[in-house]
């Protein structure tokens, strides 16, 4: 069984920074991409950032471009999200996910989430 565990969430003032981490454990697997998603109360889950190991590319939602940076190590199936200049609207539960199918857009494994709260 594969388990993804996020850490690094917390309470921060607007303008502050947090670094989220996601580590995989359990059965060995090869991921082709990993990503971060978030879900705020009353809203649908949205994609925040993603990194494709196979393409060597990154993706960012417009709302976080220039503020968030995704990085990671595909050999360890770990991914990080450096979040700077945080805004109250960034408050949400943040989830990491891993994609194990090379030609699929679906994420196969998900973490339990970590809460990020940005106060104004």
Ordered list of secondary-structure elements with their pairings:
Layout (H helix, E strand, L loop, with lengths): L1 E6 L2 E4 L4 E9 L6 E7 L6 E7 L4 E4 L7 E6 L4 E6 L8 E8 L9 E2 L3 E6 L1
Parallel strand pairs: 2-11
Antiparallel strand pairs: 1-3, 3-8, 4-5, 4-9, 5-6, 7-8, 9-10, 9-11
For this entry, give a set of tags.
four-stranded antiparallel sheet; mainly beta; 120 residues
Structure description:
- The model has no long low-confidence stretch (mean pLDDT 95).
- Strands 2, 4, 5, 6, 9, 10 and 11 form a seven-stranded mixed beta sheet that branches. The protein has a four-stranded antiparallel beta sheet with strand order 1-3-8-7, with no helix packed on it.
- A hairpin with a 4-residue loop joins strand 5 and strand 6.
- The chain is globular, with a radius of gyration of 14 Å.
- The chain is mainly β.
- The termini are far apart.
């Amino acid at each position: 069984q594969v388990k993804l565990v996020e850490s690094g969430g917390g309470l921060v003032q607007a303008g502050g920074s947090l670094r989220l981490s996601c580590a995989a454990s359990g059965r060995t697997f090869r991921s082709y991409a990993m990503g971060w998603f978030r879900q705020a109360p009353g809203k649908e889950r949205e994609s925040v950032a993603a990194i494709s190991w196979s393409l060597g590319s990154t993706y960012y939602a417009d709302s976080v471009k220039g503020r968030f940076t995704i990085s990671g190590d595909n050999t360890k199936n770990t991914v990080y999200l450096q979040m700077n200049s945080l805004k109250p609207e960034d408050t949400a539960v943040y989830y990491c996910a891993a994609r194990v199918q090379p030609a699929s857009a679906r994420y196969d494994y998900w973490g339990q989430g970590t809460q990020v709260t940005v106060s104004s």
